[in-house]
Amino acid sequence: MDLTKDYEKLYNHWLQEFQQLDLTILTQEMFYDYTQIVTQINNYQVETNDILKEQLLKSYKDNITFLFNDFLKIRKVKTINSALALKEIDLDKVIEAEKLLFQNLIGAIKGYKKIKAIAIYEEEEKLKSTNLIVPKEDKTAEKHQSDESISQEELTKYKILDEEINYILVRFLKRSPPLVGIDLINYGPFEKEDIVNLPLKNAKILIYEKFAEEIELS
User: How far is it, in rounded angstroms, from Cα 188 to Cα 201?
Assistant: First the structure.
């Protein structure tokens, strides 16, 4: 074991990682080599009672352990930042732990953005529905109370319907993969111009993503 050579190898990689914005290449094999270097140095013992050698060895152990841990921390921050920015990285040039971290973060972020967009779309649809059932003002108090009662009944009706599984007809604008509806029924795959009766919530997602359009029945 060459302490100086092993230390310089890790130090140069750490320095390169520190200086550049993108992740450096770190294969699983390289990672294993570094862990072996750190482990061997930390387990190495001076055979003679030489205080100077012991102090020098301790310094090597402390420095190389710090370098390795800091090296991994820098890479972790870069991986997280790339995922937050939805910036692709070469998954063949990172270790398995970094690959898993990146893929999980990307999936979570994309899923969050998709759900957020759908929630906004559904809120807009609810506002449109509410605007359609707003009662008109009338001159008499009796008529006004009657309108309020009807409006409340309509709102209650919409609330009940929203809790049930409603279906709407949609026309597909392009090819689409199969999906599982909220009614747990398998639908698809679909071709362009296919007309299908789908659960409302599934249809809203397809409409929002421009895969389909609603067919309004007059």
Answer: 16
Among 81, 86, 80, 114, CA closest to 100: 80
Task: Calculate ∠ Cα 59-61-66, nearest 5°.
Answer: 95
Q: Which residues pair with 179 in a beta bridge?
A: 187
**The tokens of 11 are what?**
């130090």
CA atoms within 13 A on the CB side of 120: 6
pLDDT, tens digit, 9 for 90 and up, residues 167-176: 888 999 998 8
As given in the structure block, the two tokens for residue 115 are: 């759900």
Looking at the domain assignment, is residue 146 inside a domain? no
State the CATH number of the domain containing residue 186.
Answer: 3.40.5.50
CB 189 within 8 A of CB 175: yes
- Token pair 């550049």: residue: 20
CATH of the domain at 47: 1.20.58.2050
Please write down the HEC assignment for all residues of the chain. CCHHHHHHHHHHHHHHHHHCCCCCCCCHHHHHHHHHHHHHHHHCCCCCCCHHHHHHHHHHHHHHHHHHHHHHHHHHHHHHHHHHCCCCCCHHHCCHHHHHHHHHHHHHHHHHHHHHHHHHHHHHHHHHHHHHCCCCCCCCHHHHHHHHHHHHHHHHHHHHHHHCCCEEEEEECCCECCEECCCCCEECCECCCCEEEEEHHHHHHHHHCCCEEECCCC
Overall pTM > 0.85: no
Q: For the segment 125-150, what is each residue's pLDDT rounded down to a tens digit?
A: 667 666 555 555 555 545 555 555 44
